Amino acid sequence: QDADDTQKTKFDYQSDVTRLRKIVINSLYSHRDVWLRELISNSNDALEKFRLTSLTKKGFGNDDPLNITVKAIRDEDEKGGKIIITDTGIGMSKDELAANLGTLAKSGTTEFLNRAENADTTTGTGNLIGAFGVGFYSSFLVADRVYVASRPPRSKEIPEPEQWVFSSSSDESSFEIYPDPRGATLGQGTEITLIMKPDAVKYLSTNVLTELIDKHSAFSSTFPIYLFTQKTEEVPVEEDEPTKEPETVSEPEKENIIDLDDDEALIEDVPTEEEEKPEELVVPKTKTITVDEWVHANSHPPIWTRDPKDVTEVEYLDFYRSTFKDYRKPIGWHHFSGDAAGTSFKGIIFLPEKIEDAHWQQTGPLEQKDIRLMVKHVFITSEFGSDRLPKWASWVRVIIDADDLPLNVSRETLQSSKFIKQMKGIILRHLLILFNRLATDDLEKWALVTKHYGMIFKFGAVEDTKNRDRLINLVRFETTQRQNITLDQYVENKRKGQSQIFYMADSGKTTEQIKRSVFVEKLEARGYEVLLFTEPLDEVLVNTLRKHKKLPFQDVAKAGLKFGDEDGEEEDSKEAQKKLEEKFKPLIEWLKEETKDVVRDVVISNRLVTSACAVVAEALGYTANVERLMNAAHNQEKSEAVEFLKKLRTLEINPKSPLIEGLLARVEGLNNGEEKDAEFEKELKEVASILIDGALVRSGFQVHDSNEFFIRVDRVLRRSLGVSETARAKVDVKPAPEVDPTEPEEEVPESPQYFSDDMFSDSFMKPMVLDKDTGENIHDEL
Ligand SMILES: Nc1ncnc2c1ncn2[C@@H]1O[C@H](COP(=O)(O)OP(=O)(O)OP(=O)(O)O)[C@@H](O)[C@H]1O
Predict the structure, then answer these.
(1) pTM of structure
(2) Which residues of 619-632 are buried (b: 16+ CB within 10 A; e: fewer)?
(3) 190 in contact with ligand 1, CB cutoff 6 A
(4) 44 CA to middle of ligand 1, Å?
(5) What confidence tens digit (pLDDT) does each residue in 567-583 have?
(6) Which of 90, 233, 503, 657 could covalently link to 531 via disulfide, CB atoms 3.0 to 4.6 Å apart?
(7) What is the dihedral of CA 95, 97, 102, 104, to 10 degrees?
(8) Per UniProt, which keywords does this protein have (predicted)?
(9) Which of the residue ranges 425-439, 531-545, 612-626, 735-749 has the most confident prediction, judged by mean pLDDT?
């Protein structure tokens, strides 16, 4: 398939391809077995693409069987040879050959290349390749030159497509494209010819190829893979078949007289006729022939149709890797079967180690390409229109095979199939079974699940009302007392009379920090358990659920907190509360006036233990957490309604705090005229405002003007130290000399830099090579 040079067009590889090819060729020697798997997997994709297109496009392609063939041909001198891999798939046009094989379109390639180039070539790159897959370029691991002949299927628009060749050698940074000089030898599809490297001739053995297909590629194709084999056989020769006469030795002369000398003659003993042809010496007529055979190399039934008991872990992993092109080990899987809508089905659901960030970064509907619906073992679609899975489960990797759906089902008719309508429910049910199994049976894996999927359960519980209860049971919380508990477990641990589920939310803080909040202190001191929320989604979740097991959620930073054991003491405490209110009335009144821009009310607190005061959101108001989230979301927009909601908060004062007691005494002094002096009132106001701003900060809110706050703190500090409140810092500032417009005469040396230019120069990067005798660096001379 080589053509003369006039036919060829030469192209340079895109630079990323050159880099990838270099990594593949230089560093992957120990992983070179992957080439066959990668090529078979590409062929499988091409066959799938063809079959799906032909379902909806009339007159597309021919009726050739869809398969992959692998044929090894040794050179006559046995020193080298070639391997030809052919598929009857979608093929490539001239332009597609150049675009698909000459450029890299995969996302994350550049980052991968950077990492691969810096990795340790013996181990690092191997792992990276395992995580990425190198596709077509892996062929250069074993081949010096690769020819790709390809022909797209016939179509109405192009009834006679041309066959083109892409050719490239492993050591060039360019490739050539030209019309196949052999003409259109392929009905449709792609034929890849690898001219094997001298050190890769072992792959020319059918045994080695069979083993490779078995080991790595059995799951890479759902289409049959046929391997060309040759064996020699002894077969009887047919009676009327002309046979080649055995070579006969010329009969000895009857009287073979060898003259020794003239006087003595020796006469040889010549056998009689009977002795010459004994009956038993008649040789049966057979011949040795070479039989060509195409052996079906992946004839095992698909893994999901087998009994789970007979499938090994390695088989599941191999299957996962080749089907979903994810080279990391999944956390777990669940092999299931059942009947629905008059059809039986079988499937396997896999939990990827991690969901790629890119999945959530998609705009528009989330792709669900890893939900593979098969009908009678043949891939049909990953697109389910309105029957798609909810977003929380859109990443799931599942293969589900229905037995009784018509094979020629098109995407349009699929939408109305009863099975498809039920499929979503089936997949979700089995996904939840898998999660629950991991939660109860495998703590190590469950830890991974909570780490990578914790958010998704919350998100799912908000999104998916049907499965909400099941998803809620998978969510784990941290509390003031325990870790990894469910809401059910929280409720089981509630105190007598407790009629609320307590939580404290502070996004972005650690649970340790939240535990120290003023709002948690009393509950903690009394032994009540409080859920600690660190993600915005937590609050969204409780606002959606509102209740769990009939108990409403209560934000401990909000009004409305009840312990539930107030009953017996109600009268007493009401009485006590009244007394306190009476006692603190002057302070409360005074504070109300002082804080009217910040809070709507001032009350005696029953939630504080050591803190002097706290700012608590009213039931309708924003907690500090929500306020922060709101500020981050629309920091420029100021709506009056938002400002109003922000102010729906109360200052709670702790009557047991000495600070509050002290403040009360001062306010009383002010009121009854003992301390009438204006200076005293100013001081008091300052102390009060620091106390309130401090309460805002401790409660997580922002102070109105932090500069003003620190000026006040500064004044109070000066007062307590007896320092003048107005004295300014004594700083001698030396003024700059007069303006000087003249240009400097000499070059001014630069100030030293951390990195000198020299460090990046060639010589700096080059290793030193010291001369044995002189000890000088002779790198450049070498
Ligand atoms: N046998 C084939 N038939 C048709 N097109 C092919 C064939 N092999 C490769 N291609 C095309 O070339 C492209 C590049 O192949 P390559 O193997 O490098 O990457 P990939 O298949 O996209 O990714 P990966 O192999 O890592 O999954 C493919 O996306 C496909 O469009």
Answers:
(1) 0.67
(2) eebbbbbbbbbeee
(3) yes
(4) 10
(5) 656 566 778 888 889 99
(6) 503
(7) 90
(8) Stress response
(9) 425-439
